[in-house]
Design brief:
Elements (H helix, E strand, L loop, with lengths): L14 E2 L8 H5 L3 E2 L3 H5 L4 E4 L4 H8 L5 H4 L5 E4 L5 H12 L4 E9 L8 E6 L2 H14 L2 E6 L3 H19 L1
Parallel strand pairs: 1-2, 3-4, 4-5, 6-7
Antiparallel strand pairs: 5-6
Length: 171
């Protein structure tokens, strides 16, 4: 299942940046604003959704002259939706915390057909960060839950996938 994307939910303007503009073409076509650099992206931003595949991806967005971390507003919350490992997410959280930036790690789980349908989101991080992100995360996932400290979103999603695989094999 795919996330329930709503690029322009009321009260949530959307700006995007990607290494290749073509990667976000659908969002731009739906009316999202293009940001030419990560630093421009975070200006006036309360919540930054990222999808890092490797720690190098995080470095590319956050560091350098145009890096988002150096231009971030005081209350920025980064919601990481990518595939970093739990320890990588924890290291990123420590790094961002030193800059006054909160991080929430959010992993996707597929929901059973009879359940709410679509995807569920499992979030690791502080309760305060989760509560700040919940209105936006609820636009993306059908079942959004806070599961503990930073990194536990990834762990819970991994456990969910193991149970799914065992269930499929058993059937």
């Amino acid at each position: 299942p795919r996330p329930r994307a709503r690029p322009h939910a009321p009260g949530y303007p959307l700006s995007v940046h990607a290494a290749a503009r073509a990667d976000v073409a659908a969002l731009l076509a739906a009316g999202a604003a293009w940001s030419p650099a990560p630093a421009a992206l975070v200006q006036g931003c309360d919540l930054l959704l990222t999808a890092f595949v490797t720690p190098a991806d995080a470095d590319a967005l956050l560091d350098g002259l145009d890096g988002a971390a150096h231009a971030s507003p005081q209350r920025l919350l980064v919601v990481e939706l990518g595939t970093l490992a739990p320890r990588q997410v924890q290291a990123l959280a420590e790094r961002l915390s030193a800059l006054g930036i909160d991080l929430l790690d959010v992993a996707q789980v597929d929901l059973a057909e009879g359940a709410a349908g679509g995807i569920g989101l499992r979030a690791g991080g502080s309760t305060t960060a989760f509560e700040r992100a919940l209105p936006v995360l609820s636009l993306i996932g059908a079942d959004v839950r806070h599961v503990g400290a930073i990194g536990t979103g990834r762990v819970v999603a991994g456990c969910h996938r193991i149970v799914e695989a065992v269930t499929v094999e058993a059937v």
